[in-house]
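Minutes, project check-in
Item: structure for the 564-residue chain
Input as provided by the requester:
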Amino acid sequence: MARKKFYTNAEENVQAEKTNAWNTALYIRLSRMDGDNLESDSVVNQRRLLNDYIDEHEELLSIEEFIDDDWTGTNFDRPAFQRMMQEIQKGNINCVIVKDLSRFGRNYIEAGKYLEHILPSYNCRIISVIDELDSFKDTDAALGLMVRIKNLIHDQNSQEISKKVRETKNMLRREGKYISPPPFGYLRDPNDRYKLIVDEEAAVVVRKIFSMYLNGMGTIRIAQKLNELGIVTRADYQKTGSIYKSDSSGINDYCWRPNSVRDMLSNKVYIGAVAQHRRTTRNYKDRKAIYLEEKDHIIVYDMHQPIVEKDQFYKVQDMLKNRCTKTSPNCNELYLFSGMLRCASCNSSMIRNPKLHNGKWYVYYKCRGYNQGGKGVCEHSHSITEEKLTAAVEYALNIQIKTLIDIKRVIQEINSSRAKQRLSIDYDKLIREKTSKKENLKAMKLNSYMDWKNGVVSKEDYIFMRDKFDSHMDALSKEILSLENEKLAEEDIRSNQFSWLERLIKSEYLDELTREITTDFIDFIYVGMDQKIRIVFKYKDEYDRLVEYIEKHSQTSYTAQGGV
Protein backbone atom coordinates (compact mmCIF):
# COMPACT_ATOMS: atom_id res chain seq x y z
CA MET A 1 0.00 0.00 0.00
CA ALA A 2 1.42 3.41 -0.89
CA ARG A 3 2.44 5.65 1.94
CA LYS A 4 0.28 8.76 2.13
CA LYS A 5 1.83 11.74 3.89
CA PHE A 6 0.02 14.99 4.43
CA TYR A 7 1.72 18.23 5.43
CA THR A 8 0.98 21.93 5.43
CA ASN A 9 2.67 23.82 2.61
CA ALA A 10 5.43 25.09 4.94
CA GLU A 11 6.07 21.67 6.45
CA GLU A 12 5.98 20.12 3.00
CA ASN A 13 8.65 22.43 1.63
CA VAL A 14 10.94 21.77 4.63
CA GLN A 15 10.43 18.02 4.31
CA ALA A 16 11.14 18.14 0.57
CA GLU A 17 14.37 20.07 1.18
CA LYS A 18 15.56 17.54 3.80
CA THR A 19 14.77 14.34 1.96
CA ASN A 20 14.66 15.43 -1.70
CA ALA A 21 11.07 14.12 -1.67
CA TRP A 22 8.76 14.41 -4.66
CA ASN A 23 5.12 15.26 -4.19
CA THR A 24 3.73 12.68 -6.58
CA ALA A 25 0.40 12.49 -8.42
CA LEU A 26 -0.77 9.05 -9.54
CA TYR A 27 -2.50 9.55 -12.89
CA ILE A 28 -4.83 6.74 -14.00
CA ARG A 29 -6.90 6.65 -17.19
CA LEU A 30 -9.12 4.02 -18.81
CA SER A 31 -11.31 4.26 -21.94
CA ARG A 32 -13.42 1.76 -23.85
CA MET A 33 -13.39 4.20 -26.77
CA ASP A 34 -9.61 3.80 -27.09
CA GLY A 35 -9.87 0.01 -27.14
CA ASP A 36 -8.10 -0.37 -23.78
CA ASN A 37 -7.84 -3.84 -22.30
CA LEU A 38 -10.42 -3.42 -19.54
CA GLU A 39 -8.81 -6.15 -17.42
CA SER A 40 -5.07 -5.43 -17.63
CA ASP A 41 -5.59 -1.64 -17.83
CA SER A 42 -8.28 -1.49 -15.14
CA VAL A 43 -8.16 1.27 -12.53
CA VAL A 44 -7.40 -1.32 -9.81
CA ASN A 45 -4.45 -2.80 -11.71
CA GLN A 46 -3.02 0.60 -12.61
CA ARG A 47 -3.29 1.75 -8.99
CA ARG A 48 -1.56 -1.41 -7.72
CA LEU A 49 1.31 -1.05 -10.20
CA LEU A 50 1.89 2.63 -9.39
CA ASN A 51 1.72 2.12 -5.62
CA ASP A 52 4.19 -0.78 -5.84
CA TYR A 53 6.58 1.46 -7.76
CA ILE A 54 6.25 4.25 -5.19
CA ASP A 55 6.87 1.79 -2.33
CA GLU A 56 10.18 0.90 -3.95
CA HIS A 57 11.28 4.54 -4.25
CA GLU A 58 11.43 6.32 -0.90
CA GLU A 59 11.75 9.80 -2.39
CA LEU A 60 8.26 9.55 -3.94
CA LEU A 61 5.43 10.79 -1.71
CA SER A 62 2.01 9.70 -2.88
CA ILE A 63 0.00 12.91 -2.59
CA GLU A 64 -3.19 12.24 -4.58
CA GLU A 65 -4.76 10.02 -7.23
CA PHE A 66 -6.26 11.57 -10.36
CA ILE A 67 -8.53 9.13 -12.20
CA ASP A 68 -10.18 9.68 -15.59
CA ASP A 69 -12.37 6.60 -15.97
CA ASP A 70 -13.93 6.20 -19.43
CA TRP A 71 -12.21 9.27 -20.88
CA THR A 72 -10.41 9.05 -24.23
CA GLY A 73 -6.72 9.83 -24.46
CA THR A 74 -7.04 11.48 -27.87
CA ASN A 75 -7.37 14.89 -26.21
CA PHE A 76 -6.47 16.41 -22.84
CA ASP A 77 -9.88 17.86 -21.95
CA ARG A 78 -10.27 15.38 -19.11
CA PRO A 79 -11.56 16.55 -15.72
CA ALA A 80 -9.03 14.73 -13.51
CA PHE A 81 -6.10 15.59 -15.79
CA GLN A 82 -7.04 19.28 -15.75
CA ARG A 83 -7.33 19.25 -11.92
CA MET A 84 -3.88 17.66 -11.74
CA MET A 85 -2.44 20.37 -13.98
CA GLN A 86 -3.91 23.05 -11.70
CA GLU A 87 -2.13 21.46 -8.73
CA ILE A 88 1.13 21.36 -10.73
CA GLN A 89 0.76 25.04 -11.62
CA LYS A 90 0.19 25.88 -7.93
CA GLY A 91 3.39 24.02 -7.02
CA ASN A 92 1.61 21.41 -4.90
CA ILE A 93 2.74 18.58 -7.20
CA ASN A 94 6.12 18.20 -8.88
CA CYS A 95 5.99 14.60 -10.07
CA VAL A 96 3.51 12.61 -12.17
CA ILE A 97 3.59 8.84 -12.44
CA VAL A 98 1.65 6.77 -15.01
CA LYS A 99 1.55 3.09 -15.95
CA ASP A 100 2.64 3.85 -19.53
CA LEU A 101 2.60 6.78 -21.93
CA SER A 102 -0.71 5.69 -23.49
CA ARG A 103 -2.33 6.36 -20.07
CA PHE A 104 -0.95 9.91 -20.20
CA GLY A 105 -2.33 10.56 -23.68
CA ARG A 106 -2.78 9.17 -27.19
CA ASN A 107 -2.54 12.44 -29.11
CA TYR A 108 0.99 12.53 -30.58
CA ILE A 109 1.25 16.32 -30.89
CA GLU A 110 -0.41 17.22 -27.59
CA ALA A 111 1.41 14.51 -25.61
CA GLY A 112 4.72 15.74 -26.99
CA LYS A 113 3.86 19.31 -26.03
CA TYR A 114 3.17 18.31 -22.41
CA LEU A 115 6.21 16.03 -22.09
CA GLU A 116 8.70 18.30 -23.82
CA HIS A 117 7.54 21.80 -22.84
CA ILE A 118 4.67 22.21 -20.33
CA LEU A 119 5.75 19.81 -17.55
CA PRO A 120 9.46 20.81 -17.72
CA SER A 121 8.45 24.48 -17.48
CA TYR A 122 6.98 23.71 -14.03
CA ASN A 123 9.99 21.53 -13.07
CA CYS A 124 7.61 18.60 -12.94
CA ARG A 125 9.07 15.09 -13.12
CA ILE A 126 7.32 12.47 -15.28
CA ILE A 127 7.63 8.73 -14.67
CA SER A 128 6.25 6.03 -16.99
CA VAL A 129 6.71 2.66 -15.26
CA ILE A 130 6.29 0.26 -18.20
CA ASP A 131 8.23 2.50 -20.60
CA GLU A 132 11.05 2.87 -17.99
CA LEU A 133 11.00 6.62 -18.54
CA ASP A 134 12.05 8.96 -15.73
CA SER A 135 12.71 12.57 -16.70
CA PHE A 136 14.60 13.22 -13.43
CA LYS A 137 17.14 10.43 -13.93
CA ASP A 138 17.47 11.24 -17.64
CA THR A 139 16.57 14.85 -18.37
CA ASP A 140 16.50 14.16 -22.12
CA ALA A 141 14.28 11.08 -21.77
CA ALA A 142 11.07 12.92 -22.70
CA LEU A 143 12.84 14.30 -25.79
CA GLY A 144 14.16 10.93 -26.92
CA LEU A 145 13.35 9.32 -30.24
CA MET A 146 11.82 6.22 -28.63
CA VAL A 147 9.35 8.32 -26.62
CA ARG A 148 8.27 10.14 -29.76
CA ILE A 149 7.89 6.87 -31.65
CA LYS A 150 5.79 5.38 -28.83
CA ASN A 151 3.56 8.46 -28.72
CA LEU A 152 3.13 8.26 -32.49
CA ILE A 153 2.22 4.55 -32.25
CA HIS A 154 -0.35 5.27 -29.52
CA ASP A 155 -1.80 8.03 -31.70
CA GLN A 156 -2.02 5.75 -34.75
CA ASN A 157 -3.57 2.98 -32.65
CA SER A 158 -6.26 5.44 -31.50
CA GLN A 159 -6.99 6.37 -35.11
CA GLU A 160 -7.39 2.72 -36.14
CA ILE A 161 -9.47 1.89 -33.07
CA SER A 162 -11.69 4.94 -33.64
CA LYS A 163 -12.29 3.85 -37.25
CA LYS A 164 -13.20 0.31 -36.20
CA VAL A 165 -15.50 1.56 -33.43
CA ARG A 166 -17.34 3.81 -35.91
CA GLU A 167 -17.74 0.98 -38.41
CA THR A 168 -19.04 -1.38 -35.70
CA LYS A 169 -21.50 1.20 -34.41
CA ASN A 170 -22.84 1.95 -37.89
CA MET A 171 -23.26 -1.78 -38.56
CA LEU A 172 -25.33 -2.11 -35.36
CA ARG A 173 -27.35 0.98 -36.31
CA ARG A 174 -28.16 -0.42 -39.75
CA GLU A 175 -29.42 -3.59 -38.04
CA GLY A 176 -31.87 -1.46 -36.05
CA LYS A 177 -30.05 -1.86 -32.73
CA TYR A 178 -30.33 1.15 -30.43
CA ILE A 179 -26.82 1.88 -29.12
CA SER A 180 -27.32 5.40 -27.73
CA PRO A 181 -28.58 6.23 -24.22
CA PRO A 182 -32.38 5.66 -24.07
CA PRO A 183 -34.33 8.83 -24.94
CA PHE A 184 -36.86 10.34 -22.54
CA GLY A 185 -39.90 8.03 -22.50
CA TYR A 186 -37.98 4.79 -23.04
CA LEU A 187 -35.87 2.32 -21.06
CA ARG A 188 -33.36 -0.24 -22.21
CA ASP A 189 -34.89 -3.71 -22.43
CA PRO A 190 -33.32 -5.81 -19.62
CA ASN A 191 -33.40 -8.86 -21.94
CA ASP A 192 -31.87 -7.08 -24.95
CA ARG A 193 -29.53 -4.14 -24.37
CA TYR A 194 -30.03 -2.95 -27.97
CA LYS A 195 -33.82 -2.72 -27.73
CA LEU A 196 -36.10 -0.05 -26.19
CA ILE A 197 -39.22 -0.54 -24.09
CA VAL A 198 -41.72 2.16 -23.14
CA ASP A 199 -41.34 3.84 -19.75
CA GLU A 200 -45.01 4.64 -19.17
CA GLU A 201 -44.41 7.31 -16.52
CA ALA A 202 -42.13 9.34 -18.80
CA ALA A 203 -44.17 8.49 -21.93
CA VAL A 204 -47.09 10.48 -20.47
CA VAL A 205 -44.86 13.59 -20.55
CA VAL A 206 -43.79 12.88 -24.15
CA ARG A 207 -47.41 12.63 -25.31
CA LYS A 208 -48.20 15.83 -23.42
CA ILE A 209 -45.38 17.68 -25.22
CA PHE A 210 -46.68 16.59 -28.65
CA SER A 211 -50.24 17.50 -27.64
CA MET A 212 -49.22 20.96 -26.42
CA TYR A 213 -47.37 21.66 -29.67
CA LEU A 214 -50.32 20.55 -31.79
CA ASN A 215 -52.59 22.79 -29.72
CA GLY A 216 -50.49 25.82 -30.53
CA MET A 217 -47.80 26.11 -27.88
CA GLY A 218 -44.37 26.92 -29.29
CA THR A 219 -41.21 25.25 -28.01
CA ILE A 220 -40.37 28.19 -25.74
CA ARG A 221 -43.77 28.12 -24.03
CA ILE A 222 -43.70 24.31 -23.73
CA ALA A 223 -40.29 24.46 -22.01
CA GLN A 224 -41.63 27.11 -19.63
CA LYS A 225 -44.74 25.03 -18.91
CA LEU A 226 -42.72 21.88 -18.12
CA ASN A 227 -40.50 23.86 -15.75
CA GLU A 228 -43.57 25.42 -14.10
CA LEU A 229 -45.05 21.94 -13.56
CA GLY A 230 -41.81 20.77 -11.96
CA ILE A 231 -41.22 18.03 -14.54
CA VAL A 232 -37.57 16.98 -14.62
CA THR A 233 -35.37 16.56 -17.67
CA ARG A 234 -34.01 13.23 -18.85
CA ALA A 235 -30.70 13.78 -17.02
CA ASP A 236 -32.44 14.49 -13.69
CA TYR A 237 -34.94 11.67 -14.24
CA GLN A 238 -32.07 9.20 -14.62
CA LYS A 239 -30.55 10.47 -11.37
CA THR A 240 -33.69 10.44 -9.22
CA GLY A 241 -36.11 8.04 -10.90
CA SER A 242 -38.85 10.61 -10.26
CA ILE A 243 -40.67 12.61 -12.95
CA TYR A 244 -41.34 15.57 -10.65
CA LYS A 245 -38.85 17.68 -8.75
CA SER A 246 -38.97 17.70 -4.98
CA ASP A 247 -37.28 20.01 -2.51
CA SER A 248 -35.55 17.06 -0.91
CA SER A 249 -34.15 15.65 -4.16
CA GLY A 250 -31.44 18.29 -4.43
CA ILE A 251 -31.78 18.10 -8.22
CA ASN A 252 -32.12 21.54 -9.70
CA ASP A 253 -29.19 21.53 -12.09
CA TYR A 254 -31.13 21.18 -15.31
CA CYS A 255 -34.25 22.72 -16.77
CA TRP A 256 -36.17 22.26 -20.00
CA ARG A 257 -34.97 24.35 -22.93
CA PRO A 258 -36.66 25.07 -26.29
CA ASN A 259 -33.96 23.20 -28.22
CA SER A 260 -34.43 20.02 -26.19
CA VAL A 261 -38.20 20.23 -26.79
CA ARG A 262 -37.65 20.68 -30.54
CA ASP A 263 -35.26 17.70 -30.62
CA MET A 264 -37.92 15.52 -28.99
CA LEU A 265 -40.61 16.68 -31.40
CA SER A 266 -38.47 15.77 -34.42
CA ASN A 267 -37.12 12.43 -33.12
CA LYS A 268 -38.56 9.44 -35.04
CA VAL A 269 -37.82 7.18 -32.08
CA TYR A 270 -41.28 8.13 -30.76
CA ILE A 271 -43.00 6.42 -33.72
CA GLY A 272 -41.09 3.17 -33.15
CA ALA A 273 -38.11 3.90 -35.40
CA VAL A 274 -34.46 3.55 -34.48
CA ALA A 275 -33.19 6.90 -35.75
CA GLN A 276 -29.46 7.25 -35.13
CA HIS A 277 -26.30 8.76 -36.60
CA ARG A 278 -27.92 12.17 -36.36
CA ARG A 279 -24.56 13.75 -35.53
CA THR A 280 -20.88 12.85 -35.76
CA THR A 281 -17.41 14.33 -35.18
CA ARG A 282 -14.76 15.50 -37.63
CA ASN A 283 -12.23 12.88 -36.55
CA TYR A 284 -11.02 10.90 -33.55
CA LYS A 285 -9.26 13.96 -32.08
CA ASP A 286 -11.85 16.67 -32.65
CA ARG A 287 -14.89 15.70 -30.55
CA LYS A 288 -17.00 18.73 -31.51
CA ALA A 289 -20.44 17.54 -32.63
CA ILE A 290 -21.46 18.00 -36.26
CA TYR A 291 -25.19 17.66 -36.95
CA LEU A 292 -25.95 15.66 -40.11
CA GLU A 293 -28.67 16.19 -42.68
CA GLU A 294 -31.63 13.82 -42.46
CA LYS A 295 -30.54 11.96 -45.63
CA ASP A 296 -27.40 10.85 -43.75
CA HIS A 297 -29.30 9.54 -40.70
CA ILE A 298 -29.55 5.79 -40.20
CA ILE A 299 -33.24 4.99 -39.69
CA VAL A 300 -34.85 1.58 -39.24
CA TYR A 301 -38.63 1.59 -38.72
CA ASP A 302 -40.90 -0.55 -36.52
CA MET A 303 -38.23 -1.66 -34.05
CA HIS A 304 -40.09 -0.97 -30.79
CA GLN A 305 -43.46 0.18 -29.44
CA PRO A 306 -44.28 3.78 -30.47
CA ILE A 307 -45.33 6.43 -27.97
CA VAL A 308 -46.86 8.83 -30.51
CA GLU A 309 -49.19 8.02 -33.44
CA LYS A 310 -47.58 8.48 -36.88
CA ASP A 311 -50.29 10.88 -38.11
CA GLN A 312 -49.77 13.04 -35.05
CA PHE A 313 -45.98 12.93 -35.45
CA TYR A 314 -46.01 13.98 -39.11
CA LYS A 315 -48.47 16.81 -38.41
CA VAL A 316 -45.92 18.11 -35.93
CA GLN A 317 -43.17 17.85 -38.56
CA ASP A 318 -45.26 19.98 -40.95
CA MET A 319 -45.74 22.56 -38.23
CA LEU A 320 -42.03 22.57 -37.36
CA LYS A 321 -41.14 23.00 -41.03
CA ASN A 322 -43.54 25.91 -41.54
CA ARG A 323 -42.91 27.34 -38.08
CA CYS A 324 -46.63 27.97 -37.71
CA THR A 325 -46.78 27.94 -33.90
CA LYS A 326 -47.07 31.53 -32.79
CA THR A 327 -49.50 32.38 -30.05
CA SER A 328 -50.12 35.64 -28.28
CA PRO A 329 -48.45 35.98 -24.85
CA ASN A 330 -51.71 35.37 -22.97
CA CYS A 331 -53.07 32.63 -25.24
CA ASN A 332 -52.11 28.95 -25.30
CA GLU A 333 -54.23 28.11 -28.36
CA LEU A 334 -52.95 28.51 -31.90
CA TYR A 335 -55.00 30.71 -34.19
CA LEU A 336 -56.80 29.07 -37.10
CA PHE A 337 -54.53 30.42 -39.85
CA SER A 338 -51.26 31.00 -37.97
CA GLY A 339 -48.24 30.64 -40.26
CA MET A 340 -50.33 30.08 -43.40
CA LEU A 341 -51.35 33.53 -44.62
CA ARG A 342 -49.27 35.36 -47.24
CA CYS A 343 -49.72 38.59 -49.19
CA ALA A 344 -50.23 37.73 -52.87
CA SER A 345 -48.26 40.83 -53.96
CA CYS A 346 -45.14 40.91 -51.77
CA ASN A 347 -45.27 37.45 -50.13
CA SER A 348 -45.11 38.97 -46.65
CA SER A 349 -46.93 37.21 -43.84
CA MET A 350 -50.29 38.59 -42.73
CA ILE A 351 -50.75 40.21 -39.31
CA ARG A 352 -53.75 39.31 -37.14
CA ASN A 353 -55.35 42.55 -35.98
CA PRO A 354 -58.36 42.40 -33.59
CA LYS A 355 -60.47 45.60 -33.28
CA LEU A 356 -63.35 46.58 -31.04
CA HIS A 357 -66.25 48.25 -32.86
CA ASN A 358 -69.63 49.12 -31.29
CA GLY A 359 -68.93 46.79 -28.41
CA LYS A 360 -68.05 43.83 -30.66
CA TRP A 361 -64.67 42.40 -31.52
CA TYR A 362 -63.71 41.98 -35.19
CA VAL A 363 -60.55 40.33 -36.44
CA TYR A 364 -58.72 41.49 -39.58
CA TYR A 365 -55.64 40.17 -41.34
CA LYS A 366 -53.42 42.59 -43.22
CA CYS A 367 -50.09 42.57 -45.04
CA ARG A 368 -47.11 42.85 -42.70
CA GLY A 369 -44.99 44.47 -45.43
CA TYR A 370 -47.55 47.26 -46.01
CA ASN A 371 -48.11 47.68 -42.27
CA GLN A 372 -44.39 48.17 -41.54
CA GLY A 373 -43.08 49.81 -44.72
CA GLY A 374 -46.12 51.27 -46.46
CA LYS A 375 -46.33 51.48 -50.26
CA GLY A 376 -42.55 51.35 -50.45
CA VAL A 377 -42.83 47.64 -49.62
CA CYS A 378 -46.31 46.67 -50.86
CA GLU A 379 -48.92 48.45 -52.96
CA HIS A 380 -51.90 47.64 -50.73
CA SER A 381 -52.78 46.40 -47.22
CA HIS A 382 -54.64 43.38 -48.68
CA SER A 383 -56.75 43.29 -45.53
CA ILE A 384 -59.51 40.72 -45.06
CA THR A 385 -61.77 39.87 -42.14
CA GLU A 386 -61.29 36.57 -40.34
CA GLU A 387 -65.00 35.84 -40.81
CA LYS A 388 -64.86 36.24 -44.61
CA LEU A 389 -61.57 34.32 -44.82
CA THR A 390 -62.95 31.43 -42.74
CA ALA A 391 -66.08 31.18 -44.89
CA ALA A 392 -64.08 31.18 -48.13
CA VAL A 393 -61.60 28.53 -46.88
CA GLU A 394 -64.38 26.32 -45.52
CA TYR A 395 -66.19 26.48 -48.87
CA ALA A 396 -62.98 25.64 -50.78
CA LEU A 397 -62.17 22.74 -48.45
CA ASN A 398 -65.62 21.22 -48.86
CA ILE A 399 -65.16 21.30 -52.65
CA GLN A 400 -61.72 19.71 -52.22
CA ILE A 401 -63.07 16.95 -49.98
CA LYS A 402 -65.89 16.20 -52.43
CA THR A 403 -63.36 16.02 -55.28
CA LEU A 404 -61.16 13.60 -53.34
CA ILE A 405 -64.14 11.39 -52.50
CA ASP A 406 -65.11 11.30 -56.18
CA ILE A 407 -61.53 10.50 -57.18
CA LYS A 408 -61.39 7.61 -54.73
CA ARG A 409 -64.71 6.22 -56.05
CA VAL A 410 -63.65 6.53 -59.69
CA ILE A 411 -60.32 4.80 -59.05
CA GLN A 412 -62.07 1.94 -57.26
CA GLU A 413 -64.42 1.54 -60.23
CA ILE A 414 -61.57 1.68 -62.74
CA ASN A 415 -59.63 -0.97 -60.85
CA SER A 416 -62.70 -3.18 -60.54
CA SER A 417 -63.49 -2.81 -64.25
CA ARG A 418 -59.90 -3.44 -65.34
CA ALA A 419 -59.76 -6.58 -63.22
CA LYS A 420 -62.99 -7.92 -64.75
CA GLN A 421 -61.97 -7.08 -68.31
CA ARG A 422 -58.36 -8.22 -67.76
CA LEU A 423 -57.10 -4.92 -69.11
CA SER A 424 -54.20 -4.63 -66.71
CA ILE A 425 -50.90 -4.16 -68.50
CA ASP A 426 -48.40 -6.94 -67.91
CA TYR A 427 -45.52 -4.62 -67.01
CA ASP A 428 -43.20 -7.47 -66.10
CA LYS A 429 -43.63 -9.03 -69.55
CA LEU A 430 -43.00 -5.73 -71.34
CA ILE A 431 -39.92 -5.04 -69.22
CA ARG A 432 -38.54 -8.51 -69.94
CA GLU A 433 -39.12 -8.08 -73.70
CA LYS A 434 -37.38 -4.70 -73.85
CA THR A 435 -34.53 -5.93 -71.67
CA SER A 436 -34.06 -8.89 -74.03
CA LYS A 437 -33.95 -6.53 -77.03
CA LYS A 438 -31.34 -4.42 -75.28
CA GLU A 439 -29.18 -7.49 -74.60
CA ASN A 440 -29.47 -8.54 -78.27
CA LEU A 441 -28.32 -5.10 -79.35
CA LYS A 442 -25.32 -5.36 -77.02
CA ALA A 443 -24.39 -8.68 -78.65
CA MET A 444 -24.79 -7.21 -82.13
CA LYS A 445 -22.62 -4.25 -81.18
CA LEU A 446 -19.92 -6.63 -79.95
CA ASN A 447 -20.12 -8.66 -83.17
CA SER A 448 -19.72 -5.52 -85.28
CA TYR A 449 -16.63 -4.64 -83.24
CA MET A 450 -15.15 -8.11 -83.91
CA ASP A 451 -16.00 -7.75 -87.63
CA TRP A 452 -14.04 -4.50 -87.75
CA LYS A 453 -11.08 -6.03 -85.91
CA ASN A 454 -11.12 -9.02 -88.29
CA GLY A 455 -11.27 -6.77 -91.32
CA VAL A 456 -14.79 -7.76 -92.38
CA VAL A 457 -16.11 -4.16 -92.22
CA SER A 458 -14.38 -0.81 -92.43
CA LYS A 459 -13.81 1.42 -89.42
CA GLU A 460 -16.33 3.96 -90.78
CA ASP A 461 -19.02 1.28 -91.09
CA TYR A 462 -18.28 0.04 -87.56
CA ILE A 463 -18.57 3.55 -86.08
CA PHE A 464 -21.86 4.10 -87.93
CA MET A 465 -23.31 0.78 -86.63
CA ARG A 466 -21.94 1.39 -83.10
CA ASP A 467 -23.66 4.77 -82.87
CA LYS A 468 -26.93 3.25 -84.13
CA PHE A 469 -26.75 0.45 -81.55
CA ASP A 470 -25.99 2.96 -78.75
CA SER A 471 -28.92 5.15 -79.78
CA HIS A 472 -31.37 2.20 -79.78
CA MET A 473 -30.05 0.92 -76.43
CA ASP A 474 -30.42 4.38 -74.81
CA ALA A 475 -34.01 4.55 -76.06
CA LEU A 476 -34.74 1.07 -74.66
CA SER A 477 -33.18 2.01 -71.29
CA LYS A 478 -35.51 5.00 -71.04
CA GLU A 479 -38.53 2.86 -71.98
CA ILE A 480 -37.62 0.25 -69.36
CA LEU A 481 -37.23 2.94 -66.68
CA SER A 482 -40.57 4.47 -67.68
CA LEU A 483 -42.30 1.05 -67.49
CA GLU A 484 -40.80 0.38 -64.08
CA ASN A 485 -42.07 3.75 -62.79
CA GLU A 486 -45.54 3.14 -64.28
CA LYS A 487 -45.61 -0.30 -62.69
CA LEU A 488 -44.80 1.13 -59.25
CA ALA A 489 -47.34 3.94 -59.65
CA GLU A 490 -50.14 1.58 -60.66
CA GLU A 491 -49.29 -0.87 -57.87
CA ASP A 492 -49.49 1.99 -55.38
CA ILE A 493 -52.89 3.12 -56.63
CA ARG A 494 -54.39 -0.33 -57.09
CA SER A 495 -53.30 -1.40 -53.62
CA ASN A 496 -54.62 1.84 -52.09
CA GLN A 497 -51.25 2.91 -50.70
CA PHE A 498 -52.43 6.51 -50.25
CA SER A 499 -53.05 6.83 -46.52
CA TRP A 500 -53.04 10.60 -46.92
CA LEU A 501 -56.24 10.33 -49.01
CA GLU A 502 -58.01 8.23 -46.39
CA ARG A 503 -57.07 10.68 -43.68
CA LEU A 504 -58.30 13.73 -45.56
CA ILE A 505 -61.73 12.32 -46.39
CA LYS A 506 -62.64 11.11 -42.92
CA SER A 507 -65.75 13.26 -43.09
CA GLU A 508 -67.75 14.04 -46.22
CA TYR A 509 -68.63 17.59 -45.21
CA LEU A 510 -67.11 20.20 -42.91
CA ASP A 511 -69.55 22.04 -40.72
CA GLU A 512 -66.78 23.70 -38.70
CA LEU A 513 -63.25 24.71 -39.62
CA THR A 514 -60.58 23.67 -37.09
CA ARG A 515 -56.85 24.15 -36.79
CA GLU A 516 -56.31 20.41 -37.29
CA ILE A 517 -58.18 20.46 -40.61
CA THR A 518 -56.36 23.52 -41.95
CA THR A 519 -52.93 22.03 -41.15
CA ASP A 520 -53.97 18.70 -42.73
CA PHE A 521 -55.03 20.26 -46.04
CA ILE A 522 -53.28 23.59 -46.52
CA ASP A 523 -49.71 24.77 -47.06
CA PHE A 524 -50.38 28.48 -47.71
CA ILE A 525 -53.23 30.91 -48.32
CA TYR A 526 -52.47 33.94 -50.50
CA VAL A 527 -54.62 37.05 -50.03
CA GLY A 528 -54.75 39.42 -53.01
CA MET A 529 -56.47 42.61 -54.09
CA ASP A 530 -60.25 42.81 -53.64
CA GLN A 531 -59.95 40.08 -50.95
CA LYS A 532 -59.37 37.33 -53.51
CA ILE A 533 -57.70 34.30 -52.03
CA ARG A 534 -55.64 31.47 -53.52
CA ILE A 535 -55.13 28.28 -51.54
CA VAL A 536 -52.08 26.05 -51.99
CA PHE A 537 -53.15 22.57 -50.94
CA LYS A 538 -50.84 19.85 -49.68
CA TYR A 539 -50.23 16.54 -51.50
CA LYS A 540 -50.30 18.21 -54.93
CA ASP A 541 -47.93 15.63 -56.47
CA GLU A 542 -49.97 12.72 -55.09
CA TYR A 543 -53.20 14.35 -56.29
CA ASP A 544 -51.76 14.83 -59.80
CA ARG A 545 -50.78 11.15 -59.93
CA LEU A 546 -54.34 10.08 -59.16
CA VAL A 547 -55.77 12.39 -61.82
CA GLU A 548 -53.21 11.14 -64.35
CA TYR A 549 -54.16 7.54 -63.55
CA ILE A 550 -57.85 8.32 -64.13
CA GLU A 551 -57.17 10.12 -67.43
CA LYS A 552 -54.99 7.28 -68.64
CA HIS A 553 -57.49 4.48 -67.94
CA SER A 554 -60.88 6.17 -68.22
CA GLN A 555 -61.08 5.42 -71.98
CA THR A 556 -60.63 1.67 -71.51
CA SER A 557 -62.59 1.24 -68.30
CA TYR A 558 -66.09 1.90 -67.07
CA THR A 559 -66.37 5.22 -65.33
CA ALA A 560 -69.47 5.94 -63.30
CA GLN A 561 -71.49 9.04 -64.03
CA GLY A 562 -70.72 11.87 -61.70
CA GLY A 563 -67.00 11.04 -61.70
CA VAL A 564 -64.39 13.74 -61.88
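Outcome recorded: The chain has 18 helices and 17 strands.
No further action items on this chain.
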